[in-house]
Amino acid sequence: MAISGFGEIAEHLRRSTVLIRSGGRGSGSGVIWSSDGLLVTNAHVVHSSRPIVQLWDGREFEAVTQSRDSRRDLAQLRIEASDLPAATAADSSQVRPGELAIAIGNPMGFVGALATGVIHGVGPIRRLGSQSWVQADVRLAPGNSGGPLADARGRVVGINTMVAGRLALAIPSNAVQDFLSAGAADGWLGVTVHPALIPRVSSRGKTFGLVVLEVEPGSPAAQASLLPGDILLGLEENPFASVDDLSRALRGRAPRLLRFEFLRGDYSRVRRVTVQLGAHPARSSVAA
Q1: Which secondary structure element, helix H or strand E, spans residue 220, and what is its range?
Q2: What pLDDT is attached to residue 178?
């Protein structure tokens, strides 16, 4: 069934969607949340404090990462621009299975690509914890992350985040509004990590760790002399068992010091480092 004005709805949604390049690791998408330069995207799309944002008309801006919550996978950016074509957010609690879903993003380098499908449901997904997701039968690809999932009227019902099976999963728009209302939720460490099990001779078994893949220049991690290849084991007397443990350790607004235990080199000795989170990282040194 044809939808009256669908072309105009899709075009407006395209103009409210941005391309984000951050940290030299490909690109993602974002949504213009307000006309004065407030943008929303996924936390995993933003790998630096000043990502580059490209608008639908080709203009580029250096954005400022105002807040980032890796637990909810959301980030708030700001660009110096006005009169932008902001998207309209819907009440995601009112979304029902069977409704039309529209996704806009920049997959595989195709700017402003559109995909359509239907909503399957809203709620938690088995094995993904208690977080609620807008689940839609929409085809997503790398580069769609952070872009809008909208209803038939072009109102944003979620932020596209990942694919589970054949379903696209989006963070509900109500969760986005809660995130924006709360302000900054995470301290910024400035690392990209990957979970791994590390063989340890001393413990005759394997230890969970987070392998540091990248360290953002000028970040608190860089100030503390952490390097790619280091393995974060946890905070002192509080070992990590998952990536969520690091997210929980970074949660909070206030500047503070965190004392990490980590491995380097032949991994035979546990080292320690103090990292200062906040606006003005202090000089830190790795213990010998």
Answers
A1: helix 220-223
A2: 86
| pLDDT band, very low/low/confident/very high, at 22 (cuts 50, 70, 90) | confident
CATH no. for 92-182: 2.40.10.10
Which spans in 73-184 are helix H? 173-182
pTM equals 0.68
> CB of 115 within 8 A of CB of 103?
yes
CB 120 within 8 A of CB 85: no
All structural domains of the chain with their residue ranges: 6-78, 92-182, 191-277
CATH 3.40.50.720 assigned to domain 6-78? The reply is no
Residue type, 139: R
What is 191-277's CATH topology? Pdz3 Domain (2.30.42)
- Point out the residues that are catalytic: 44, 73, 145
Q: How many degrees, rounded to 5, is the angle at CA 76 between CA 124 and CA 155?
A: 60
The dihedral over CA atoms of 84, 90, 96, 100, expressed in degrees to the nearest 10, equals: -20
Task: Look up residue 235 and give its two tokens.
Answer: 């905070």
* Cβ burial 118-129 (10 Å sphere, 16+ → b, else e): ebbbbeebeeee
State the Cα–Cα distance between residues 140 and 162, nearest whole angstrom.
Answer: 8
Do the domains spanning 92-182 and 191-277 agree at the CATH topology level?
Answer: no
50-103 pLDDT tens trace: 899 999 999 999 999 888 877 788 999 999 999 999 999 999 999 999 999 999
Residues in contact with 160: Cβ distance below 8 Å, sequence separation at least 6, in sequence order: 29, 103, 105, 138, 140, 144, 145, 146, 147, 148, 149, 168, 169, 170
